[in-house]
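Appendix B. Chain record.
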Amino acid sequence: MKLEQLRNELAPGGVLRVAINLSNFLLVTGKSPTGEPEGVSPDMGREIADRIGVPVEYVLFDTPGAVADAALDDAWDIANIGAEPERAKTIAFTSAYVEIESTYLVPPGSQIRSISEVDAPGNRIAVYARAAYGLWLIDHIRHAELVKADGMDASFDVFLEQGLEALAGLRPRLIEDVGKLPGARILDGQFSAVQQAIGTRPERQLATAFLQDFVDQAKSSGFVASLIEKHGVTGRLTVAPSA
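Structure tokens predicted for this chain:
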């Protein structure tokens, strides 16, 4: 693979523009003194830029949906968001480099004891609809009603205000939420795992192959695991299994 050809395809402007979803508190854990995002996701982007020998530029978005929407606008060269079939219509994704477990929180006194009991007639599930796990639920929930919100905080508020039967979310976030609601419970297991991956434009076939090789090497070499430890998210992020 010729480096110059790869560089021209992946970073045609001479700078690798890396789309960062600021709402993922596990992958973006802070800011540098210069205001740049810090965390596993920004570090993955910087490492890719270093590998192809160009500077990195972070393109910041408030939500993963906004990142996906910008895929057709040439706003970024690579994006670090959850791989999901709807997004894959406009973005070519690698396999996942980390996974984040998605499950449910149920209110005090709930008779729901397992994930399989949630998707039942009469149950209402609060969900951040444009998150990867929200898109998964939209495709898979058959009997319960999804009550869609515009963010993680908003889904928690809807869950409380409307007295819903379940709140869908990332397990690490639900661990925070359950502390605000004595008697609430987080259900064991998961209904899905967000597959955090790297995406680029579908026509960039050379770049897509390079990014997949990079992800494979980053996992097998321990680089991803070292970033998880570096940024203090051990036990909340898991290195994804090999593709």
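Further analysis of this model is presented in Appendix C.
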